[in-house]
Fold these 2 entries.
Entry 1:
Amino acid sequence: MTRTMVLMDQSNQLNVLDVGFLSISMDDALSLVSGVVKADGKECVSFINADCLNISSGDHEYRSILNSQRIVLPDGAGMNIACRMIGKRLKANLNGTDLLPELCEISKKNDFTLFLLGAAPGVAGRMKKNLEASYPGLNVVGEQHGYFDHDSESADVIAKINSVKPNILLVAFGAPRQEKWIHRHQHEIDSNLLIGVGGLFDFYSGDKKRAPMWMRNGGIEWLYRLYLEPGRLWRRYIIGNPLFVYRILKWKKKQSQA
Ligand code: UDP
């Protein structure tokens, strides 16, 4: 399917907790994003999971940013469960970690350039090395850590990005910080795709291990992340997961009464 067809097809549009997103296959997602670059267009891309929707329930700025974007993709088992609870079917789990290898292949083939922005100092550099080793010929034209002062130093960071005009800018500040930063600066940034990717760099740099395949396939990757970082993530998953299910049930009831 072409970029326009994917975006115009109403059957691809779903909504959970008042946030719209696309239910499309991995192939359609890839042709959509590569179509944006080929047409020299500009789109912001976000991934949403249960935690993002929990945050957006209380953060109206984040929610309206997501709803202003044409490309919001469902990431994680929680989105699958939410869709089933409202009687819809999710075509694919489109998390950034699985999408990136495909995006690298396409970028290599089409000469798209990438810029890595985010994570702790050193992480993006290690990721660049790993990507260039895995995809010889891939053109990662720049990197920058995410711990600059987002109020006073963004102009310098944007000047650095614009000096190389990457086709694809990956922004890894975590949600919703990255979505707000991208939204605020999208018109100043010379790039076709501005993609918020959360903790992705920490995995691709080799700093953090991803869950084994059986856990990923079973929809319990979150359990592995919780096991690795219980102090930071218990609230997100132990409280967040049941809260998400409760919110869906409440939202579904409200929808049926409307
Ligand atoms: N981060 C950053 N700048 C900040 C705060 C966070 O670059 O000011 C990075 C952090 O180092 C990590 C990512 O943002 O690489 C967020 O990771 P997290 O696991 O919270 O993201 P998730 O995928 O869960 O949204």
Entry 2:
Amino acid sequence: MKLINIALDGPAAAGKSTIAKFVAAKLSMIYVDTGAMYRALTYKYLQQNKTEDFDQLINTSELALTYEEGKGQRVILDHKDVTDYLRENDVTNNVSYVASKEPVRTFAVKKQQELAAKKGIVMDGRDIGTVVLPDADLKVYMIASVEERAIRRQKDNELRGIESTVEQLEQEIAERDHYDMNREISPLKKADDAITLDTTGKDIDTVTNEILKMVDAI
Ligand code: DC
């Protein structure tokens, strides 16, 4: 198969990362979770007591993604593996804000484009099809109802030992979507040439197979 890049965008908890992992595994491609980069920078922002100097935050940050057999993507920030902290509530509740800042986006987008330069990447995020990889070979815009997304995130949190309720998650997800869709720089939106995939009520296999069919059709 020829080397391709796949861009997977959509609102929070639409199942992008789960599906991206499955698609990448099926096609022997590398899955890049771009949200984890914004989460890592948010983790550092919180460690720095929410200091508002985002140029300083970026200029002092060394961020690298590594890929370990069986462990998937790891996020190395300033030489420390911070992956296990990135799903904590505090990070989740501040990440949209940090990700709206220009120095943060410029820094992350450049790294993402470097990672994708050699192709063979399934990349998920909010602006992959529109800004990061406008020439991606396949662009999918994944959506699902807020109710279903909250239930999926709740199951995820239970597995990770993170406390939450479905009601609280519905509210947080809706707020994050609103923020991500309405920010000034690279807001979340469907690329004109993306295919919309509504995953409400569909299981992982079904959605994965739908994307594999799209790949076949390229
Ligand atoms: O996919 P996620 O929930 O881990 O993303 C966390 C946040 O990061 C999300 O609310 C918005 C931001 N984000 C972004 O602005 N651009 C991306 N390409 C990926 C994530």
